[in-house]
Specification:
This protein is an alpha/beta fold. It folds into 3 domains: 147 residues, FAD/NAD(P)-binding domain; 108 residues, FAD/NAD(P)-binding domain; 116 residues, FAD/NAD-linked reductase, C-terminal dimerisation domain (Enolase-like, domain 1, 2-Layer Sandwich), CATH 3.30.390. Helix content is 35%, strand content 22%. It is built from 16 helices and 23 strands. Strands 1, 2, 3, 4, 5, 6 and 17 form a 7-stranded mixed sheet that branches. Strands 19-20-23-22-21 form a 5-stranded antiparallel sheet, with helices on both faces. α1 runs parallel beside α10 and α3 packs across α7. The protein starts with a strand and ends with a helix. Its cofactor is FAD. InterPro entries: FAD/NAD-bd_sf (IPR036188), FAD/NAD-binding_dom (IPR023753), FAD/NAD-linked_Rdtase_dimer_sf (IPR016156), Pyr_nuc-diS_OxRdtase (IPR001100), Pyr_nucl-diS_OxRdtase_dimer (IPR004099), Pyr_OxRdtase_I_AS (IPR012999). This is FAD-dependent oxidoreductase. Belongs to the class-I pyridine nucleotide-disulfide oxidoreductase family.
């Protein structure tokens, strides 16, 4: 008989969630983590990056206070203080993800590297562990592009960026995705020169119109954006050599060009577990295609026909599916139709469902509705009118996608995630009663715009005239 009901490799978001559920249900579970409890999100990802962004936001607010009639001096950036704030955020959350907490729940926690030695059997801490079911949630790491000379440089990734003892003078960033743009804005606000080099356009996954608005903001704040620019070599300095011959020199280099699944040290071949370059190949229930007792979750999962989605909330979503399937034997399958994503710049860029370009690519008839934040009373009152709410809908009013560029767009996108996921009709959103004044009203207004043509069209005018003539 197997020693454990469940073995979990990786103590990030997905692994911790599955372990918590199994332990609380009285299952015999072992959690194996070779590095830090909490995974990338707690230690080198979501938490430290958002803490750094909050410090940057404070500096930006101070610089912009004069427009509200509040006079303050140029903020002085205490880099050691900023780092302490980031560390406090991590330390405050860490006990929730700690080995002690999960041991207290009844799980066996091993701080070691786990490796398959045969199907259903792992080696960790020099001992063989057998489990009826195994969840691989080993995560991912920063992908390093094959640029000549880059590997020889002391470049930064999200693993090392938050350990900098001194503020960068000129931060070069390879990659204009969410991580690159967030860190670009944060470091610019904290007094660094910043240059972003992107081989395509920035925020390439996001709606182009919303990305245009974000580009304007970043450039106004002093971030240099080099788009559609290919780097042909990297040299000590660091110096990036561009395809057109230009040489861009900086004090530090951050590589933010995507993620790569941590597959190499797991011994997957010994267990007969099929993997792709993107991760462990699974069905849409996150079960291995070749070993049905093995599940994959989070950044390391490559669901069949869908591909990985390397976001922390996706890891939590994966955990829920595996809990239902592995612990309760219930059917559960991935559905990313209502999967939101947010770039946490200021303003934030949030998206769920199809973008305008993606909707056009389907060939299905659709309409695009827009409401600029410049017409939202709360935005006007706060002097933050940049951005817009944008909806993609069918001619009949079914919501296909929503995008928002606005302060706190990540908080606003939840409504549209629910609307797409639960099939809430656009009329229900248009008919909501929302508190005034809020930015959320922009969403209600754009939904209402779909019906305004009918409401105020010729037929409605005639009907109103006839009804008005009645005694």
């Amino acid at each position: 008989m197997a020693e454990f009901d469940l073995a979990v490799i990786g103590a990030g978001s997905a692994g911790l969630s599955v372990t918590y559920a199994a332990a609380r249900l009285g299952r015999k579970v072992v959690l194996i983590e070779r590095d830090r409890m909490g995974g990338d999100c707690l230690n080198v990802g979501c938490v430290p990056s958002k803490a750094l962004l909050s410090a940057a936001h404070a500096a930006r607010s101070a610089r912009g206070a004069a427009r509200y009639g509040v006079r303050v001096a140029e903020p002085e950036i205490d880099w050691a203080g900023v780092r302490a704030h980031v560390r406090r955020a991590i330390d405050t959350i860490a006990p929730v993800d700690s080995a002690e907490r999960y041991s207290g729940l009844g799980a066996t926690v091993l701080r070691a590297e786990a490796r398959f030695v045969e199907p259903g059997t792992l080696m960790a801490e020099g001992r063989r562990l057998t489990a009826r079911r195994i969840v691989v949630a080993a995560g991912s790491r920063a992908a390093v592009p094959p640029i000549p000379g880059l590997a020889a440089l002391p470049f930064l990734t999200n693993d090392t960026l938050f350990d900098l003892a001194e503020r960068p003078d000129h931060l070069l960033i390879l990659g204009g995705g969410a991580i690159g743009l967030e860190m670009a804005q944060a470091h610019a606000a904290l007094g660094c020169r910043v240059t972003v080099v992107e081989q395509g356009r920035i925020a390439a996954q996001e709606d182009a119109e919303l990305a245009d608005g974000l580009r304007d903001v970043l450039q106004a704040e002093g971030v240099a954006l080099l788009e559609n620019t290919r780097v042909t070599a990297a040299e000590p300095g660091p110096v990036l050599v561009l395809e057109d011959g230009r040489r861009i020199a900086g004090s530090h280099l951050l590589v933010a060009t995507g993620r790569r699944a941590n597959l190499e040290d797991l011994g997957l071949d010994a267990a007969g577990i099929r993997a792709t370059a993107q991760g462990i190949a699974t069905d849409r229930g996150l079960c291995s295609l070749t070993q049905r007792h093995v599940f994959a979750a989070g950044d390391i999962a490559d669901p069949d026909g869908i591909g990985p989605r390397r976001l922390t909330h996706v890891a939590g979503y994966h955990a829920g599916i595996i809990i239902r399937r592995a612990l309760f034997r219930l059917p559960a399958r991935l559905d990313y139709a209502a999967l939101p994503r947010v770039t946490y710049t200021d303003p934030e860029l949030a998206q769920v469902g199809l973008t305008e370009a993606e909707a056009a690519g389907t060939g299905r008839p659709h309409r695009v509705l827009r409401f600029p934040m410049a017409e939202n009373d709360r935005a006007i009152a706060e002097g933050r009118t940049e951005g817009l709410v944008k909806l993609v809908v069918t001619p009949g009013g079914k919501l296909l996608g929503a995008g928002i560029l606005a302060p706190h767009a990540g908080e606003m996108i939840g409504l549209w995630t629910q609307a797409i996921g639960r099939g809430v009709p656009l009329s229900a959103v248009a008919g909501m009663i929302l508190p005034y004044p809020t930015r959320a009203e922009a969403g209600k207004r754009v939904a209402g715009a779909f019906y305004s043509e009918r409401l105020f069209g010729p037929w409605s005018r005639r009907l109103a005239g006839l009804l008005g003539a009645l005694p």
